[in-house]
Design brief:
Elements (H helix, E strand, L loop, with lengths): L2 E7 L4 E7 L17 E5 L4 H7 L4 H20 L2 E8 L1 H5 L3 H12 L3 E3 L2 H13 L9 E7 L4 E7 L2 E8 L3 H5 L5 H17 L3 E6 L1 H10 E2 L2 E6 H11 L4 H8 L3 H20 L4 E3 L5 H9 L1
Parallel strand pairs: 1-4, 4-5, 6-9, 9-12
Antiparallel strand pairs: 1-2, 2-3, 6-7, 7-8, 10-11, 11-12
Length: 294
Amino acid sequence: MKHIAAIDIGSNASRLLIKETESMSGRYVPQVRNELDYFVRTPLRLGLDVYTERVISPEKERQLAETLLQYRQIMDRYHTAAYRACATASLRDALNGAEVARRVSLQSGVCVEIISGREEAALSRMSYFAQYPDDDESYRLFADVGGGSTDVCLCHHREELFVHSFQIGSMRMMSGRQDEAELRLLDETLRRLSEQYAPIQVIGSGGSIHKICELYFMPELPETVAVSSIQQLYDELQPLSIEERMQRYHLKRDRAEIIVAAAGIFLRMARLVHATTLRAPRIGVRDGLIASLL
């Protein structure tokens, strides 16, 4: 029985996904899970340090090392044949990110790579194209919104027409450290793309948009949410306290803290490209890592 694993170290949470490969016949479909797979999510919230103090604190470093050591032990129990562990915006942006990655790798036995925003976006696209047909003429704007970065790529079929990682994220906004100039750059960029290419279909990824889609999915269009529904959720949650958000929508605390900011980012992008709906299939960095290992 062969297993492979992906570790995604994000600004809000870290995730370990272990997949049994023999039943997949060389094709990875994220929605398909069996009893031989394993998944765990750990809300480390590294971005709380990075987007206020610009460094990973000793306490967050200790938590990350302990989490990766636990992941290493779980992978050993599954006799994992291969894995990749990738850190995204939090370690990429931290002044001490490279040193932290080196130390936690030595302490845990898990080799941590810090990947670029471009590779982060490419991994999400890889997991999309591994499972969905590419048979229409619309332009696809892949938009991955995390705690520290928003990675966008405009594609026609599988050709990249534009790709960029913006320093825009839900944890930056929550901490009050979002650079307004970066938001203006996003606005200018998407306006230009919408004038040049049409129609544009927005394909969102990240934990917040997946949760929004669970709450407001369109029955006639699976994995799709109306932009008006995202606005409704934003309007309902924005004035509430974290505890009220958790209670009303059964959210975990770390999700309740950032979901409004993430919804705002998706609303901004959808309106700039004149999209009325947004697709939110189960794609992301961890799924792209599994697809690449296959």
